[in-house]
Amino acid sequence: MGGYYGMLVLVGVTLSLTSIQCDVSCGGTNGQPGVNGAPGRDGLPGVKGEKGEPALMAAGPEDADVLLRLKGEVGSRGSQGDMGPKGYSGNLGAAGYPGNAGRPGPNGRSIGQGQHSHQQTHSAFSVMRTETSYPAYNQIVTYQDTVVNNPGHFNPAMGVFTCRIPGVYYFNFHSAAKVSVCLYIASDALTNKLGFCDYNKNYDQVLSGGVVLELTVGQKVWLESFRDQQTATDSRDNREKQIIFNGFLLF
Question: What are the boundaries of the signal sequence (predicted)?
């Protein structure tokens, strides 16, 4: 029994020596690298940095790219540019709603009494010319028929209305023909004559014109034919032509 125990102690000592010797002189193999770990979480935001120093212009040539990035001072307002061309006319809008009634006007003043006052506050005429010949150019148009001429301020043979009652008048004309017709409304109350023309060919055509004039006693109004783009054929046309001339006192 004692011999068996001694043998075990000897074997144990031998193994211990062998282990100590290998730790000192025997090298083991390197291990394999480990697997990467999962990404870590984002860190907290950092503290805001201090305000930087103002930029300084570097000496030497100016860099155009740098100048574009720098905000300059506001310049003075430039002068107004030329007006652009007129735009196209828009479409005619719908008619507006009627306006509110105006305030009553001042009381009128008396201008006379009885029948005499009535006769001196109206003037109206309507005359007609029907011919196959063309009205002579630059001549006052005359008339053969009188529809209205009250109280007789229009002279059909001369083709002229003469104002006898000062006031505001309305004059208009209508002509019908199958050739080009041009007519002036003329008056010594106008700086320039008012011209009206129609150039349709070979069709019944109606030319109209009108004007409101403020006349004093003695001023005259008449129609006058003139030539614009008419041809010699127009002046020789022998088809029927009609001109109606009207006028009356408004107030």
Answer: 1-22
